[in-house]
Specification:
two-stranded antiparallel ribbon; 6-stranded antiparallel barrel; Thrombin, subunit H
Length: about 100
């Protein structure tokens, strides 16, 4: 499988996948360390509820990432929330994920 080259994944983040909601709020899975590429440019998108969101950055991750919509991603001590995940298709398979965080 051809995936995004490791040389491009220059940052380490901690991902806590959203597993659901309980009466006390969101429930997150065990933290997982992943190598990613982070682009801090802001971007405007529509969120899952249709409202406009200004994203704080875009993460490029491998297709087997544990990131889910609503997951917490910690980078350099700052916590982000995943608002959109776009699989980027290669010739025959998903090459990488483009993950918008706010």
């Amino acid at each position: 499988m051809v995936m995004i080259p490791s040389a491009l994944l220059t940052e380490i983040v901690e991902v806590e996948p959203l597993e659901g909601n309980a009466s006390m709020g969101p429930v997150y899975g065990e933290p997982v360390i992943e190598k990613v590429r982070f682009d801090g440019r802001r971007r405007r998108v529509s969120g899952p509820d249709g409202k406009e969101i200004i994203g704080s950055g875009t993460i490029l991750a491998r297709p087997d990432s544990v990131m889910t919509i609503g997951a917490k991603v910690t980078r350099r001590g700052r916590v982000y929330t995943v608002v959109e995940i776009l699989p980027i298709q290669g010739l025959s398979r998903v090459h990488h994920l483009e993950v918008l965080v706010s």
